[in-house]
Structure formats: structure tokens, C-alpha cells
Specification:
This protein is an alpha/beta fold. The protein folds into 2 domains: 272 residues, Crotonobetainyl-coa:carnitine coa-transferase, domain 1 (Rossmann fold, 3-Layer(aba) Sandwich); 77 residues, formyl-coa transferase, domain 3 (2-Layer Sandwich), CATH 3.30.1540.10. Helix 10 packs across helix 14.
């Protein structure tokens, strides 16, 4: 079954990846129209199926989030039949993604050098903790470890002297998946030009480093590593969250014009005249003092009053929403970021949408995540296996059929 939408319609992707970084890559490609066949292990499938709670009637909410828009099959690669089936799928694939430890695939005879012999146009995408080269290539990696080693945790948190703090979202997992999808698309452009495949290699460690652009710029220029600043910005101010009478708002007065607009909206001429805050350099030098004089003013009015004033003044600002509030935000809904999809067991379920909008070949989130082995028989039938062969594979334990 080939997807009939998006710029990647007709592109065949075999996903051997599990949990998060690799599945993020797969869902990005699937949302853009690629046919993504997720291959899960027997027994148990993707480990995120057991990330419970939360669940919806026994189905892992985490698994469903990462694997919508894909078809799912289940193979036991410890069996010769399971391995042979996978080799057949890979011989016709455009892309394969995996996030095993180094050499795992090679030991199965399924490494890049093995596969390119029969499929020279194959794009082999590997996502790992630290990449396939370098002194840490054999280490396992998790988001928490990558956040710590990439420098992210050194400048995330409330301020100096506080314990190390990770970013709340698993940003290195998610970013590694997005970088992998970018790498796959770059390799696919090369394949269209030459017919040649190649290996795409990225990691959680490098995905964390990507998020240090501003702090690395400061450190490279000064030799001093920036520390945590709460919600504040290391280069511009005020650019942070402030507490109001009944909630928090964020203020983006990140240039001189917006600073002047902010002062007009706040009606505080005495602050405008204060020599400590005249230029951005002054404000960054005296940021704590600036917070000290602005916060009492913000606390005098409600969140909605301030947001109305700031919008009229042309100052970038917004409320600090929790995730459930974000779901109900009219702009998130208008942008198609909270779509409903059909799940084989549960019926309609909500998920997150595609953040890339294309005018001529739009992608979409079309189907819910597969139940374990949901499409095994269907996919094997498409690759030429007979009903009797499929039944024999199931009896052998080489496949699982929903």
C-alpha cells in the first residue's frame, strides 16, 4: 500500500528503530507521504509499548504518539525465516532506519556494507547515542546522558548554584530524529541525481550540541561557558517570563524598538529614564536589577490585561500554557496540530500533527499507530508471499500476525 499524498509518496522506508529518536525520523517521513513499514521484534515489539501508564484501554499512549501513520509488522530476527523476510523487504527499500548499538546489524548480516551489495541505492540511516565513529561510538546513549554531555544541562535551570536541570522534553531524542529525516532527504536528493545510496549517521550527542548555538558563540568568543538564567536570554533582554497577578506571561522585548514599546505599554517613564537600562548592553549588564523593577509592575495586572496591552503596543508576548491548554489553543487547532486519527482497536484518537506545511504537496497524519503485528500478513502478501507461506512463518514463530 503506497501512500497517495505528500512529496514522498512512493518512497519505501523500513523502520527497524525503536522507542523515540528513530521513530521520530520515521513519523516525519511518513507524515510527508513515505510508506513506512515498522518492523518490531518478537516477543513484545517496540519497548515503548510497555511505557505504561499512561495508556488508553491498554494501548500505550507513548507508542501511539511516535508511530501513527506507519504500518507495523512483527519479525523474529533470530529465525532464519524472519531474517530472510527482512532481507527481502530491504532489497526493495529506498530507506532503512535503525538505532541499535554499533555492529548489531552487521552481526545479523544486515549492515550497510552487506545490504548495499544487493541494493546499491539504499539509504541506510543510523541514529545512536554518540554516532558510529569516535571514541564513544560503542557507548549506549539516552537523552539524559546526551543533554549532560552536550552542554545543555550546564545552562538549563533557574540560575547559578542550583542543581543541574535537563530540558523537560527529550530534546536530543526528538532533534536527532529530525536531523536524521533531514539527512535521509538530503541523501534521497543525491540518489535521484546518481542512483547511489549512502549511509546517514547522526546522534543524540550531536543533537544536543546543536541546541548550544548561542551559548557556544559566547564561549568561543569569550572563553567563558554561560550558566543557567532561568527563562532569560543570554544575549537580549528583557526576553523572559514574568509573573502577573494570576499567571505567567513571556515577553520578547529583544530589540530597542520593542523595549520602547514595552515601556509605553507598562506606563513606566521612570524606568525609561534609568541609565542602567538605556541600551541592550546596559540591560544585560543589569538584568537582575531590571527583573526587580519590572516584576512588581507586572504583578499589578492580570495575565489577560497584560497580553491585551502588549498586543496593542506591538510587543511580542504570550501566556505560559500547560500542554492541555495548548491542545485547546485556537491557533494550534487552526494549524492542524491536534488531529484525530483512526486506531484499529480504539477508534478515533487524538495525536500531534505535522509541523511542516507545503502548498503543493501537503503531508498529513492519516492513520493511527498499528497494533502489534497488525499489517504483517498484508505486507508479506504485497512482497509475494502466499497465504500458506505466511501461515507457516506464523507457526514457526518467525512472524506475529494480529
Amino acid at each position: 500500500m503506497t501512500q497517495s499524498f505528500g512529496p514522498l509518496a512512493g518512497v519505501k522506508v523500513i523502520e527497524l528503530a525503536h522507542i523515540m529518536a528513530g521513530p521520530v525520523c520515521g513519523l516525519m517521513l511518513a507524515d510527508l507521504g513515505a510508506e513506512v513499514i515498522k518492523v518490531e521484534k518478537i516477543p513484545g515489539g517496540d519497548d515503548s509499548r510497555r511505557f505504561l501508564p499512561p495508556d488508553i484501554d491498554g494501548e500505550s499512549a507513548a507508542y501511539m504518539m511516535m508511530n501513527r501513520n506507519k504500518r507495523g509488522i512483527a519479525l523474529d530476527l533470530k529465525t532464519e525465516s524472519g531474517k530472510a523476510i527482512l532481507k527481502k523487504l530491504l532489497s526493495e527499500a529506498d530507506v532503512v532506519t535503525e538505532n541499535y548499538r554499533r555492529d548489531t546489524m552487521s552481526k545479523l548480516g544486515l549492515g550497510y556494507e552487506d545490504l548495499r551489495k544487493t541494493n546499491p541505492g539504499l539509504i541506510y540511516c543510523t541514529i545512536s547515542g554518540f554516532g558510529r565513529t569516535g571514541p564513544y561510538a560503542d557507548r549506549g546513549g539516552f537523552d539524559l546522558i546526551a543533554q549532560g554531555m552536550s552542554g545543555l544541562m550546564s545552562f538549563t535551570g533557574e540560575g547559578p548554584g542550583r542543581p543541574p536541570c535537563k530540558v523537560g522534553a527529550p530534546v536530543t531524542d526528538i532533534t536527532a530524529g529530525i536531523l536524521a529525516a533531514l539527512g535521509v532527504l538530503s541523501a534521497y536528493v543525491h540518489k535521484l541525481k546518481t542512483g547511489e545510496g549512502q549511509m546517514v549517521d547522526t546522534s543524540l550527542f550531536e543533537a544536543g550540541i546543536v541546541h548550544t548555538y548561542w551559548q557556544s558563540a559566547i564561549a568561543l568568543a569569550t572563553g567563558i561557558a554561560p550558566g543557567p538564567m532561568g527563562s532569560a536570554h543570554p544575549l537580549n533582554g528583557p526576553y523572559q517570563a514574568f509573573e502577573t497577578m494570576d499567571g505567567w506571561i513571556t515577553i520578547g522585548a529583544a530589540n530597542q524598538r520593542n523595549w520602547e514599546r514595552l515601556l509605553d505599554a507598562m506606563e513606566v517613564p521612570e524606568i525609561a529614564a534609568d541609565p542602567r537600562f538605556v541600551t541592550n548592553t546596559d540591560r544585560m549588564t543589569n538584568l537582575k536589577a531590571l527583573e526587580g523593577v519590572l516584576t512588581p509592575v507586572f504583578k499589578k495586572k492580570s495575565q489577560s490585561e497584560w497580553l491585551d496591552r502588549l498586543e496593542k503596543a506591538g510587543v511580542p508576548a504570550g501566556p505560559v500554557l500547560d500542554v492541555c491548554e495548548m491542545f485547546e489553543d485556537p491557533h494550534a487547532q487552526a494549524r492542524g496540530m491536534i488531529p484525530t486519527v483512526e486506531h484499529a482497536r480504539l477508534g478515533p484518537v487524538k495525536t500531534l500533527g505535522l509541523p511542516i506545511k507545503l502548498s503543493e504537496t501537503p503531508g498529513k497524519v492519516a492513520t493511527g499507530a498499528p497494533v502489534f503485528g497488525q499489517h504483517t500478513a498484508e505486507v508479506l502478501g504485497e512482497y509475494g508471499y502466499s497465504e500458506d507461506q505466511i501461515k507457516a512463518f506464523a507457526a514457526e514463530g518467525a512472524i506475529a500476525v494480529s
